[in-house]
Design the sequence.
């Protein structure tokens, strides 16, 4: 049993080490201070194409979306792997129609969810309803 | 599958159901699962062919439950790979530490495998980002797999082997 306890403790220590390495070197880091950003929402089927300019101290996109949830008509769904944007301008993407909100940062496809997208001064975050 | 007997078909159905149920039981804890443990124990207890068929039924059941998506296709590869590796290594392992190592590596590599798989559909940049953002989940998966198999493999394998002998004695 002692051998097993040593093995389990070793594996847990290894996990802590990996967690520290991830937090220190890999995890996205936000920028402190005031930033001026644009949220652009496009829902073609509802004839919605609207831009919102915000000055914010938040470091990540999700925090800004949460703060402006009412104005942006945003809704979210939390999964094991993070929180996803499921609605904008009070329109909720219909999964049965293969709809989702595609996020682009300055025209480039975002590869992470809003919780990992850092806010940068002058950036444009576009939410467009698309089909997968 | 011309050598399949009714008892094997019944057994495969039962084992598949137990794995699906096992997945549901722990589905509220992200990336902590007993599916890996069950596949390892079943491979050692019931053999390669039956376990591979169980993995096919399990993957198909997942698609029926969650609907079709690209990551579910990966299930047809990732579980059979675990079964084949377990089968090939079974005679070399003298204790549960070897199986725990396989389970740990399988859990830790789970995200990397699906990242490569997703890359075929959405590009390498997406795959790399997918893997990076999931690293911590992979660590939880690998560590929990290691601990679960280390602690539960021996007692569970003993019970399952005993029941397997009873099952085959009863139906033969």
Sequence:
């Amino acid at each position: 049993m002692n051998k097993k306890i040593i093995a389990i403790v070793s594996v847990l220590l290894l996990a802590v080490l990996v967690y520290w390495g991830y937090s220190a070197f890999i995890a996205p880091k936000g920028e402190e201070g005031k930033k001026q950003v644009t949220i652009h929402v496009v829902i073609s089927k509802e004839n919605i194409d609207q831009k919102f300019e915000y000055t914010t101290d938040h470091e990540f996109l999700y925090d800004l979306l949460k703060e402006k949830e009412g104005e942006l008509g945003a809704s979210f769904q939390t999964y094991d792997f993070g929180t996803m944007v499921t609605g904008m301008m009070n329109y909720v993407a219909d999964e049965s129609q293969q709809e989702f909100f595609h996020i682009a940062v300055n025209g480039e496809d975002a590869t992470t969810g809003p919780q990992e997208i850092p806010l940068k001064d002058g950036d444009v975050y576009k939410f467009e309803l698309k089909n997968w | 599958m011309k050598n399949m007997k009714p008892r094997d078909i019944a057994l495969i159905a039962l084992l598949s159901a137990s794995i699906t149920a096992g997945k549901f039981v722990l589905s509220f804890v992200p990336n902590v699962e007993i599916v890996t443990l069950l596949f390892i124990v079943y491979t050692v207890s019931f053999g390669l062919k039956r376990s591979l068929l169980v993995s096919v039924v399990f993957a198909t059941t997942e698609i029926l439950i969650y609907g079709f998506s690209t990551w579910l296709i990966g299930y047809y590869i990732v579980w059979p790979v675990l079964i084949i590796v377990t089968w090939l290594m079974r005679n070399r392992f003298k204790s549960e530490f070897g199986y725990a190592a396989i389970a740990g590596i399988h859990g830790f590599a789970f995200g990397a495998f699906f990242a490569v798989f997703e890359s075929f559909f959405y590009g390498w940049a997406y795959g790399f980002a997918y893997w990076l953002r999931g690293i911590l989940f992979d660590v939880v998966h690998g560590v929990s797999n290691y601990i679960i198999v280390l602690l539960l493999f021996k007692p569970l394998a003993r019970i399952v082997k005993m029941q397997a002998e009873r099952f085959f004695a009863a139906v033969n």
In short: The mean pLDDT of chain A is 90. Residues 2-26 of chain A form the longest helix (25 residues). The CA atoms of residues 93 and 100 of chain A lie 5 Å apart. Chain A touches chain B at residues 3-4, 7-8, 11-12, 14-15, 18-19, 22, 26, 80-82, 109, 111-113, 116 (CB under 8 Å).
